[in-house]
Design brief:
Blueprint (H helix, E strand, L loop, with lengths): L3 H4 L12 H13 L5 E5 L6 H13 L13 H7 L6 E5 L6 H11 L9 E6 L6 H12 L5 E7 L7 H4 L3 E4 L5 H15 L2 E2 L1 H10 L4 H15 L3 E2 L1 H7 L5 H12 L3 H13 L4 H17 L1 H7 L1 H4 L3 H18 L7 H10 L4 H39 L3 H21 L1
Parallel strand pairs: 1-4, 1-5, 2-3, 3-4, 6-7
Helix pairs in contact: 5-6, 8-9, 8-10, 9-11, 12-13, 12-14, 13-18, 14-15, 14-17, 17-18, 19-20
The structure holds zinc ion.
Protein name: DNA polymerase III subunit gamma/tau
Pfam families: DNA_pol3_delta2, DNAX_ATPase_lid
Family: Belongs to the DnaX/STICHEL family.
Length: about 400
């Protein structure tokens, strides 16, 4: 059975949710006929880069464009939808990284399109190309035949050479917010006659991490796993393998109330039940995040949680995030979470005094660094100002020294 994600892949720009800042510009280019020959789509995974590239490729070849939208009816559009359009070439740079692949592409590129007006090359994960392959691609991008359009996509733009970047029109895709992801899921659920209660949808959205693809895949997995098209919050939670909500709430409230014994006892319960510790930590972090942003949600769980300051919320979330990443390398999965809990609820003087001693030490270090830097500025300035022609150079010299000095202090 095809996945929900592939059957519900948008076929026109209007169906793309949350990326109107991009589709508006692409549609304008299409209807005015002012097109570039290379595009770079930047954004996290699951935000619709490839989908948009395919719609754009279809629109470039559609013979009856409607305000920049592909018509969906002409021979070209129909060939696209049947997956039989021959002038769309998709390359996954993660598995075709080398110069040979790009050379081959370059040779074939010279031939006229076999069906449509425009040959479109989509190179996904383009940052994976080798240095030599990038150089070959650069030459290709400099003067491609007029009937060729390149659409490069990447999740890691900092790995794409500046020379490639500067030859492309750049578009940045955004992660979906709660509103956009909920809209995406509810519209699919409506067509597929799937019913999930409001809290269940909220849970799916919060676990998708802003990725449209992940949100849809989660829904897909749960429907497939349960064989059920009417799902409650509890069923969604079980299917996601999430820990008992009562225990999550109990732990969260214990942290909010600074009740160390309850917090540790709840952890014990989690551990003895064999609950996945990483999953539990993630659920707790997400709940703190959601209740920090939505006071109403916090009030539903408990008053002590609702009155926490933003500073306390961020301290808790940061500490738990550290524990979450430490779990991967810990020889005992429970340890980072236990330590984080004790750190968040200092119950005696030793626990409180430890961090403050460190702070005092750090302060002293900082003052020393600044003192040294100041001495250096006063020493260097007169000498350099004689040599330096412009005022900016005199300023730049001490700044550089200060930076280097700081680095030394850290490594020492
Ligand atoms: Zn068409």
């Amino acid at each position: 059975m095809p996945s929900l994600y592939s059957t519900h892949r948008p076929k026109e720009f209007a169906q793309l949710i949350g990326q109107s800042h991009i589709t508006k510009l692409l549609k304008a280019e299409l209807s005015k006929g002012l097109l570039g020959h290379a595009y770079l789509f930047i954004g996290p995974r699951g935000t619709g880069k490839t989908t948009t590239a395919r719609i754009f490729a279809k629109a470039l070849n559609c013979t009856k464009l409607k305000n920049g939208e592909p018509c969906g009816e002409c021979d070209m559009c129909l060939a696209f939808e049947a997956g039989k359009f021959l002038d769309l070439i998709e390359i996954d740079a993660a598995s075709n990284r080398g110069i040979d692949e790009i050379r081959e592409l370059k040779e074939k590129m010279e031939y006229n399109p076999s069906m449509g007006k425009q040959k479109v090359y989509i190179i996904d994960e383009v940052h994976m190309l080798t240095k030599e392959a990038f150089n070959a691609l650069l030459k290709t991008l400099e003067e491609p035949p007029s009937f060729v359009t390149f659409i490069l996509a990447t999740t890691e733009p900092h790995k794409v050479p500046a020379t490639i970047m500067s030859r492309c029109e750049k578009y940045e895709f955004r992660l979906g917010g709660t509103k956009e992801l909920t809209l995406t899921l509810t519209s699919i659920m409506e067509t597929e006659k799937i019913k999930v209660d409001k809290k269940g949808v909220e849970l799916l959205v919060s676990h998708a991490g802003g990725s449209y693809r992940d949100a849809i895949s989660l829904l897909d997995t749960i429907v497939a796993a349960t064989g059920d098209t009417e799902l409650t919050f509890e069923e969604v939670r079980n299917a996601l393998g999430l820990p008992d909500i009562e225990l999550i709430h109990s732990y969260v409230m214990a942290i909010a109330e600074k009740n160390l014994s309850t917090a540790l006892a709840t952890l014990d319960e989690i551990f003895t039940r064999g609950t996945n510790t990483a999953q539990f930590t993630k659920s707790v972090i997400l709940l703190f995040r959601d209740t920090m942003l939505e006071k109403e949600k916090a009030e539903e769980i408990g008053q002590e949680l609702a009155v926490l300051s933003k500073a306390r919320f961020t301290e808790i979330i940061k500490t738990l995030l550290e524990a979450y990443s430490a779990q991967k390398y810990a020889f005992d999965q429970r340890l980072p979470l236990q330590l984080a809990t004790i750190h968040l609820i200092p119950d005696d003087d030793t626990a409180i005094s430890l961090p403050s001693v460190k702070k005092a030490e750090k302060k002293q270090n900082d003052t020393e660094v600044v003192k040294e830097a100041i001495t250096e500025i006063t020493v260097t300035e007169p000498t350099t100002s004689v040599v330096a022609e412009s005022a900016s150079e005199t300023v730049a010299t001490p700044k550089l020294k200060l930076k280097r000095k700081k680095k030394k202090a850290v490594t020492a």
